[in-house]
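Narrative progress, year one. The postdoctoral researcher (J.K.) led the effort to move from monomer predictions toward full complexes, under supervision of the PI. The following entry was the first complex the group processed end to end, covering 291 residues in total.
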Amino acid sequence: MAIDILLVDDSAVMRKVLTRALRQGGLDIGEIHEAGDGTEALEQVTKGGISVSLVLCDWNMPNMNGPDFVQEARNAGFEAPVIMVTTEGGDERIAQATEAGANGFICKPFTPDKLADAINSVLAPA
Amino acid sequence: MSAITSSIPRLAPILESSVREVIETMFGLTLDGPNELDGPDPAEIFGIIGLAGKEFRGMLRLGGSNDGVRALAAAFLGGEEMLEGDPSMISDGFGELVNMIGGTLKRQIDESGVKIELSLPSVMEGARGIFDARDGHSQVASMTWTVDGQQLSTTLVFSEEVVED
């Protein structure tokens, strides 16, 4: 079954790079939706009528950052896995992302294979 | 290469490995170098990101020619056609590149026990000749690379002193 994905990043370049990596990663990718910040993403997943099986979310964004988006989305009942895609790693960041409700974490730079592994790890049945 | 008297060990190799990790991993390009850069930076476009902490303050600067930065952006996005119709893609792509190299550098510096934060990246165009490799700083790691026939410069200028709260 194809994976429909929402990309949340204020950089149009990064959204293109992520789209390219997704297409190269060997996964069955369906529709790819895009949002330029957390506010726009929250609107899409709670009121916009889109149905996605995964969100890839940047950390630093204007209006609403990644962790705040995840927390707000979870509070609104959004259940699909969220993977944070960020430049900065570290235990504190991972803990903050997990506490907000994120399911995975991937640091830039990444290869298409590494991205696919991160996606498989959160979509794999328990 | 300039002497580095940093308490952070081997800062120049950390910069070198950060540049390699991003460009070779994310772009799939081969880097030739590094070579020494000691004098005016010939680049025309610069991507800049600040690094700041209690014990370390600095700036990472990435420079390239107009053609070189365009070629990098095209490689980043998957082809020259991806740049057509939106000139901002070139500078935005270069900003993302310096952001990723800065993040990779930060992770390695953090591992040495020195905590720093990154600023948002910015890109300066039409800036040929405004930077010198050393820029009056005593602590600098500066090097040039060749990527697909285009020169890329990477410079980390920094100072270390404990800043009181």
